[in-house]
Automatic annotation (TrEMBL):
Domain PH residues, every copy: 68-196
Organism: Rhinopithecus roxellana (Golden snub-nosed monkey)
InterPro entries linked: Niban-like, Niban_1/2/3_dom, PH-like_dom_sf, PH_domain
Record SMART domains: PH (SM00233)
Family affiliation: Belongs to the Niban family.
Official protein name in the record: Niban apoptosis regulator 3
Entry-linked Pfam families: Niban2, PH_Niban2
Family matches, as PANTHER family: NIBAN FAMILY MEMBER (PTHR14392), PROTEIN NIBAN 3 (PTHR14392:SF4)
Encoding gene per record: NIBAN3
Domain of life of the source: Eukaryota
Amino acid sequence: MGGRPSSPLDKQQRQHLRGQVDTLMRNFLPCYRGQLAASILRQISRELGPQEPAGSQLLRSKKLPRVREHRGPLTQLRGHPPRWQPIFCVLRGDGRLEWFSHKEEYENGGHPLGSTALTGYTLLTSQREYLRLLDALCSDSLEDHTQEEPDSLLEVPVSFPLFLQHPFRRHLCFSAATREAQHAWRLALQGGIRLRGTVLQRSQAPAARAFLDAVRLYRQHQGHFGDDDVTLGSDAEVLTAVLMREQLPALRAQTLPGLRGSGRARAWAWTELLDAVHAAVLAGASAGLCAFQPEKDELLASLEKTIRPDVDQLLRQRARVAGRLRTDIRGPLESCLHREVDPQLPRVVQTLLRTMEASLEAVRTLLAQGMDRLSRRLRQSPSGTQLRREVYSFGEMPWDLALMQTCYREAERSHGRLGQLAAPFGFLGMQSLVFGAQDLAQQLMADAVATFLQLADQCLTMALNCDQAAQRLERVRGRVLKKFKSDGGLAQRRFIRGWGLCIFLPFVLSQLEPSCKKELPEFEGDVLAMGSQALTTEGIYEDVIRGCLLQRIDRELKKTLGANDVSCTLDGCLEVPWEQEGAAPTLNLVSSFLAGRQAFTDFLCLPEKSSANTLAASPLSCSCFQSGFHRDSPVFLVQLAEGLSHPTETISSHSVWSFQPTSRQ
């Protein structure tokens, strides 16, 4: 296992990678600028347009999603040659994993032996499965595997392994001492991987939507139309993944034959080389986005000032061009939809629906059980201390990894079936879809918990005894469950519409590319005459196709649900799947575009700062059962509804999530 290149990257290779990153930025930033303008137009039109008749009924939780810090002893396979060594591991609140030589080193503020952001990793707890994956990395050298020493370190059975695998980074091999410790670490690491990965999808900032659309358009211009998991992570991490995928075939052909070692030793060395390449690309992408940040801030402010006064005229002009485009492409578009999409759409919609129904039912069950426990505790033991503990546990339900695992597993069950249905359309983003369903379940649980605590706080008074208070809580329980049902149905339809678009839209665009794209130059003159970079022929063309797809998805939803309240998107609607019809829930409530931001130099622990690395304060309301009772009644304390306030960290240039500091920080 000791074979590896003496120097992962020489000077010439580093210069080559810098050139590749510069080329990527030159080609990507024009797409980004255009999508920033389109995103601002979309946001303004949504603000001025008609609001949804049936909005959310649950209160919005002000508690941001966060990674729960976890720490404890593990053993790690490291060194050259690799061997199992004891370490003390810490999962930070920002989704970063660090390991120290021993616990005292961590407690004394020492530097870690190593660290990594969990973005893009996959966790395996089966040694056999991990070895199969490792063998597949260098399949051309499998014939040499039998020549390895029989007591190879990875051949020694590991009782409770935790393997972190990444397509472009060094693998991390850990082992826990007990099954219980392995289970706790598995939950913690999976939660960190998810929240670290969906940071852009959960952002409300217009620039985040623009960035995701720009990545999709850039890749389409490179000939890649299918959706996959490349957009998991921060902006710099996403661009790094894009470039790594482009460069991987050439890198493999040029360097893999020259790696020393054989079999799994060569695979291990290959992951170390990839890690060095990934670090160099990540540093370059982060520096490029950081350099673009001032221009982006200025551009956003300018776009807001220029687009808002003329928004009505822009939308009318856009509608005229969209109508003409719709007429020109109707024949090929309808033929493609009828031939390719319609036969599979019912099964895709039904599978998405079953996925969300199972997840939401699991959330509802946990929510009802939690509310019932509070009522029972109130009747059985009015002690203030015990009740405070129960209220706090109830408020922490959305962030309880073990508890929410029931809901998260329901989202994972559809991975195989839905993946098979979507694969013929080039959709390979099943991990993103599962993460989106899990984020949505967590958000709905958080909103329902916040609503229950707020309503309970309003209806409880000092004049009530415990039985009367419990009866009022039961009435609140019924109200919350009704609100949850309404919001759950709305979120379910948005989820299906959003992910239906993600599955089918790139495929339809690729099918129409040869026949319909050549018609677009005819409309360039009309679009250019509008004099706004917020409108492009390509953007209007995609909006037309998106509108037709949404009509079909809505029609199928009506058939499946048997409901008449499924809102249909009109042709030419500017909404995109990550916005109002979002494929993933919006969990963040703080815009990343704040004046006077303070640089956070340790952002994501990258070699260079990314496009915006800031800390922002997020005042959280903290009301919960503020009324108290006397005699046989419990005392409810303030600051339990939303738990303790957590400072928030801006991750990438678009998103905010909660950062949970350690005691020594």
